[in-house]
Design brief:
The complex is a heterodimer of chains A (226) and B (240).
Chain A (H helix, E strand, L loop, with lengths): L3 H19 L3 H18 L7 H22 L2 H5 L2 H7 L5 H30 L6 H26 L5 H27 L10 H27 L2
Helix pairs in contact in A: 1-6, 2-3, 2-6, 3-6, 3-7, 3-8, 6-7, 7-8, 7-9, 8-9
Chain B lengths: L5 H22 L13 H28 L2 H33 L8 H14 L1 H6 L4 H29 L17 H43 L15
Helix pairs in contact in B: 1-7, 2-3, 2-6, 2-7, 3-4, 3-6, 3-7, 4-6
Classes of the chains: A mainly alpha (226), B mainly alpha (240).
Chain lengths: 226, 240
């Protein structure tokens, strides 16, 4: 049996390489988020944002952009027979879950590498809040990656593939968004970043990540059986 | 087989409901603050508790299904969640009525319990489109179980996050666990809770019985039409 670490690295490498060569998800996600910022600029009729409005716009946009990537996460496995190959391979199936979570995490971080600076240029007066935001981004992405991978792996085997991911993922992501916007809001407050309940929200994010990573790890085997 | 004990259970449920409703109407004192409308509390809160416990029970059945592979547990899980979603709709309606009467608005965003309940309800409402988008019968059962477990883990986390999001602590109308409630109100509340829980169990049992009976009828009809035993195609969860 191939060690899980090797299998994990192989699947993750395959995913990242495929994305780099085809560029199926990432450009679309980045373009989508920039366009959404423009829509928010006119929808809210604001040229600069701060506090809860800024946090809400940023996270709503990132969440919807993430849905695009999550929708496509398992499409190659489904269409090219990757699921059967994984089932045949002498590896622990959890390696697939872990690798997909890691791949999605990389996608989301890459998306934010583009979208968050553009958001700052569009709406924020200063970039002072961006350094502490990194912790919020990483923890939220981890939670999104865990639930997103779980939902995506199920939705891809259904009739209503593109419909199910947003349908099920959005309510599941509500606590994540509560904590993420709660932590981001004081960071983008008028007059420099504040840290009101910053640590508490990070802990909520961490708890969410932990719970859904464990749930995903525990149930993922059953999704691959056939 | 599922019909066994259904009659005494139904009678007990009706008796308990009648007892609790008459306690609500004639025994429980009027609330000094809110007057008559407060009586909806005896309907709203037991419904909410039963629905939430039902969601968790659905998750536990789902774990049993994944561990044993027995489709019976999937049907239990499905019916539990189904009934809890119906109860949940009633919770939201009674909650809105109560909010209108005591705060003047049909919906208040600063009541964390109600908001949490809405989010949980929205998540479980996606159980049906999710489940029926998957055609293969075994896969549908497995995926639905995974959904039920994930959503079951989500329920407490969601309540915590929504409660923490309240910037100011909203005064609780009723102290939740200990004290605050006079004895006569507490007794009425506990009776209502027992009645709602019994109602839930009875309705779950009825639905399981109906599903099992319709499955049997389908099998018999198929056996009459084509004598050769073929495999049965099933869409909805069935109990055998």
């Amino acid at each position: 049996m191939t060690p899980s670490r090797v299998a994990f690295a192989a699947i993750l490498g395959k995913d990242l390489r495929a994305e780099l060569r085809t560029l199926q998800s990432l450009p679309a996600m980045a373009l989508f988020s920039v366009t959404t910022f423009v829509i928010f600029r006119f929808g809210l009729d604001r040229t600069s944002l701060s506090g809860s409005l800024a946090a809400g716009v940023l996270w709503a946009t990132l969440l919807f952009a993430a849905v695009l990537g999550i929708n496509r996460l398992f499409v190659a496995e489904r269409e090219e027979g990757g699921f059967d190959a994984i089932r045949l391979a002498p590896i622990d199936r959890s390696a697939l879950f872990a690798a997909k979570v890691a791949a999605l995490l990389v996608y989301l971080l890459a998306l934010e590498l583009v979208a968050v600076p553009i958001f700052a240029v569009f709406f924020l007066g200063s970039a002072a809040s961006l350094a502490p935001l990194l912790a919020v981004l990483v923890l939220t992405d981890l939670g999104l990656a865990a639930t997103g991978t779980l939902i995506s792996s199920m939705a891809v085997n259904s009739r209503a593939r593109d419909l199910l991911v947003p349908l099920v993922l959005l309510p599941l992501a509500v606590p994540l968004m509560i904590a993420a916007t709660g932590a981001t809001e004081p960071l983008m407050a008028v007059g420099g970043p504040g840290y009101h309940r910053f640590g508490t929200w990070l802990m909520v994010l961490g708890l969410y990540d932990l719970i859904f990573a464990l749930v995903g790890y525990a149930v993922f085997d059953f999704l691959l059986e056939d | 087989m599922y019909g066994k004990g259904l009659r005494p259970l139904s009678i007990a449920t009706v008796a308990m409901l009648a007892l609790s409703l008459s306690l609500v109407a004639f025994y429980a004192p009027l609330d000094a603050d809110q007057g008559f409308i407060q009586k909806i509390f005896y309907l709203h809160v037991p419904l909410a508790i039963t629905a939430l416990v039902g969601f968790i029970v659905g998750g536990v059945f789902a774990i049993a299904h994944l561990r044993s592979g027995n489709a019976k547990w999937d049907a239990y899980s499905y019916v539990s969640i189904h009934m809890s979603v119906i109860f949940g709709a009633a919770v939201l309606i009674t909650g809105a009525i109560w909010a209108k009467a005591s705060w003047g608005h049909w919906w208040v965003w600063d009541e964390p319990t109600l908001v949490s309940f809405l989010i949980v309800f929205l998540l479980y409402a996606t159980y049906y489109p999710f489940r029926y988008a998957i055609e293969d019968r075994d896969r549908q059962a497995r995926y639905a179980s995974v959904f039920a477990i994930t959503a079951g883990a989500f329920v407490p986390l969601n309540f915590m996050a929504v409660r923490m999001a309240q910037s100011l602590v909203h005064p609780r109308v009723f102290a939740t666990a200990n004290g605050g409630l006079p004895g006569s109100m507490l007794l009425t509340f506990l009776c209502s809770l027992a009645a709602m829980a019994l109602l839930w169990v009875t309705l779950v049992k009825f639905e399981l019985t109906a599903k099992s009976a319709s499955g049997q009828v389908k099998r018999l009809r198929r056996a009459l039409d084509a004598p050769a035993p073929g495999n049965t195609s099933r869409i909805a969860p069935e109990v055998s």
